[in-house]
Amino acid sequence: MSWFSKVRNAIPFIAKRETEDNLWHKCKNCQEMVFLKEFEENQSICPMCDHHGRIGATVRFVQMLDEGSWEVLEAPEVQSDPLKFKDSKKYADRMKTAMADNDYPDALTNASGTIQDHPVVMGVQEFGFMGGSMGLAVGAAFVNGVNHAIDKKCPYIIFTAAGGARMQEGILSLMQMPKATVAINQMRAAGLPYIVVLTDPTTGGVTASYAMLGDIQIAEPGALIGFAGQRVIQDTIREKLPEGFQRAEYLLDHGMIDMVVHRKDLRDKLASVIDYTMSGIKAA
Amino acid sequence: MTSYLEFEKPIAELDERISELQETADNGELDIAADLKRLQKKSERLLKSTYKSLTPWQKTQVARHPQRPHFQNYITHIFEEFEPLAGDRAFGDDQAIMGGFAKIDGRRVMVIGHEKGNTTESRIKHNFGMGKPEGYRKAIRLMELADRFHLPVVTLVDTSGAFPGIEAEERGQAEAIARSTQTCLSLHVPMVACIVGEGGSGGAVALASAERVLMYEHAVYSVISPEGCASILWRTADKASEAATAMKVTAADLKKLGVIDEIVPEPVGGAHRDHEQACVALKTAILKHLDELSGLSDSELLQARHQKFLSLGEL
Ligand SMILES: [Zn+2]
Known about the structure:
The complex is a heterodimer of chains A (284) and B (315). By secondary structure, chain A is of the alpha/beta class.
């Protein structure tokens, strides 16, 4: 099935019927009600408190890539439900629901395009798709994104968002950590930059692999970024967690990332980073 | 004295009767040698049949058995020499991850592994085998050292997971694990990883991204603990047994999925019943794989390792 054609025409939010509920957006941070239209025109940033809302792949491509420059890369095919997993629900059924609720067939989607005329391949992880979780499809999409970037001799930029590995794929989800890392090593061998933009939330096995291996590490303001979940940590140490723990600014303070960048400045910042890292590399 | 697991209750009861009889026999009261022998045979048979068909959840308990061999025991039984090396050169020396130069059957290697500890005191010292960033950074340093000086790397993986705590997050637990995995995948020397007890998630992958992964018969390797998986997907940790089955955590499952290369047999009743015998089998397997890899060039090794992980789970 081609997801590409479906997606090209689709900006999901304008398709919905404009009911009362759809007209308003309640900010998760300050609880203020703002017009959804105003919120979306503001790049899904709360106009009252500057809280950066979670956004999906299509909106991210529209915001970051030059208009008319990009196309979505078709998702590589992978084994579906390799373990025939069933908990209180069948994994296959959970997948059906997730696919019906989302624009793309799994939680990581790549597009090829330009940012201020710099060619890039960009991957966006969709938290709305089973918590952005990393399984075979995410691993394969990551490798595919990297391969396209190597072919195009351009950077691979990934926007991460995930609760971690997809438990329903068992050990195979865990094996996506080394798999993605092999791809990063290949980027390195090709002399091309790998740029990570950490968005809210990025935790677990995703953080402990490709989300922390960027040549340049950028985070959106306020994004939750960590290895262990806060509840697990609290259960282990039985202490109150410090203010701002595992937020983007906390990681910046502790030397774990290069910069925290406001969504409105992100395009300019990415263009600048690309300009520096690609200056010594001949175009394909 | 072996401490019995919950599911070994029938064996424990038999063994108790045997030792009672033994006492009576020692007192010379009755001639019960034949009875004793019969019971001992029965106990052996029961142990054998129990361990032949352990459920994934039972295997998890065997893998976590406090008397299972740990890093120091492997060092004693498998390596004729060990030269420990310490520290990450940045923050400290994490006792949950140990390593150093070692000799195995005359061959010089770098050995790195988790240490859970064998006594209450040593468990605390080794933080129950839960590594912190400085532990993974020590592992990175030792792997890089091995790479530069052409020493094969052997890892012994046994952790419930990397330590979840404030200071670990503060010092970049995720980055340390990611970088350790990347270092495994960048080595130009042979690497053999052994899942000897619990292969707990990212904290295990960081030391197990090798071209050859061996696993003990009753070890487990999984993306999350069965209890963790159950409490998220079933909303109760009581379903850990179901979760262990569904996630496919055993050596036989992982061999079928192509995640591991060889299953190392354990003595009847598990490695904790006979450290020495367990170690002989592991040593033989490690040597066999080191031998096979010794003929490959730097780039062939790297290529084999990359190909293994790229093709895992492919259609
Ligand atoms: Zn707000």
